[in-house]
Amino acid sequence: MPVKYHYEYIRQISVEYLINSDKLAISCFCAIFGIGRALVWRCCCHDLPVSTPAPPGPSAPTGSFVPSQAAARPSTLESAAFGADPDLDRLPVPSTTREWWTTAVVLGGQGHYARARAALDVLDRRTSGFSAHSDRVLASLSASTRASFLRQSGRHALASTWDGRALAIVGGLQDDPEAACDALTGLAADALGCGRLPLGWRLLAQCRARLGEEAGLWRQEIRIEWVSAELALAGGDFARAGRHAERAVELSGESESVRHRVKSDLLLSATLTGTDPSAAVELATDVLARCQRYGLLPLAWASSLLIEGVSGGRTSPSAREIGDLIAMRGGLLLPLS
Question: Which residues are CB-contacts of 97 (< 8 A; sequence separation ≥ 6)?
Fold first, then answer.
C-alpha cells in the first residue's frame, strides 16, 4: 500500500475510533468470538438499567441507557443532533468542518462528553485563525458548545469565559445571528448560575434584538424560552416561568428535534413544581422514560434529580448512579451538596 494511502487509511480508522470507540470495540469482539451484537450489548455494554413508574399509555419504553438501533433507518448527523435520531447508534465519519460540530452536539447529548470535546478539538484545529466567515461562526459554536458542557456540570463561571470567547469571535458578524445568539443565551444561563438574574435578563434582551425578525432560527428561539423560564424560576415567578416553558414546548413541537422536545417538557415539569408537584413528577417520569429510549443521559440525570427532589422517592437508577455514569463518559459533575 503506498505510504500516502496507508496514512489516509490509518487516519480514517483513528477518526472512526474517536467518535465510535465503544461500537468499534464491540464489532471487533463480535468478529473474533462470533457472538451476536445484541447479546454483546446486553451482556457487556449496558450502562445502567432503568426502572421508573410507567407513564400513562400502553407503550411506555423500557430498557437501558443504550441508544436504540437508529442506524437501521436513514439517518444523518443533522438528524441526530437536531432531528428525530438522537439515538443514532453508529455515527458517520464527519466529512466537513460543520459536521465535526454536529458530531460533538450528538455525543454531548448522549453524555459522551470526553469524545464530544475531542471532536471539538478537531474542529478548533480546522478553524484556527478564523480566516473565513464560516470558520469564525464554527469556532464560535465550538466555544459555546464547550461552555454548555461546563454549564451542565455546574461550572457556570468557567462556562462564561467560553461563552464570552464565542461572542467575541462573531461580535462583528451582524448578518449571521446564529452563533451570537448561542453565545448570548449561554451567557444569560451562566449569569443565572452565578446568581446574577438582572444580567441574565439583559443578555436575553440583547439576544432577542440580535435575532430580530430572522426566520428559520428555531433552535435559538427555543433556547431563549428555556433560559427565560429558568430565570423566572430562579426569581420565584412560577407563572411567568410556565408561560416561557409552554412556549418552548410549542416551538419544539413544530421542529423535528426529539432532544429539544424532551428538554422543553423537562423544563415545563420544573415550572409545575411550584403549583402542582404531582403533575410535575408525572411529566418528569415521562421525560425520563424518553431519555432512556433515546439515550439522552444528561437530561435523564436532570429529570431523575427533579423526581427525587419533589417526590422524596428514588428512581432506579438513582440520580447519583446516573451521575456516576456521566463521569465515566467524561462529564465531571459538581457535588450536589
Answer: 123, 126, 127, 134, 135, 138
Q: What is the pLDDT of residue 14?
A: 54
Alpha helix segments (H runs only) across 153-176: 156-169
152's grid cell: 451542565
Query: pTM for this one?
Result: 0.82
Q: What's the pLDDT tens digit per position in 267-276?
A: 999 999 999 9
Cα separation of 333 and 317, whole Å? 17
Domain extents in the chain: 3-328
Written as nine digits, the cell of 85 is 435520531
Q: Which fold has domain 3-328?
A: 1.25.40
Cell of 117: 470535546
What cell was used for 118? 475531542
DSSP string across 45-59: I---EEB-PPPSSTT
- Which residues contact residue 220 at a Cβ distance below 8 angstroms, ignoring those fewer than 6 apart? 177, 178, 181, 182, 185, 207, 211
Cα angle at 97 between 129 and 148, to 5 degrees?
85
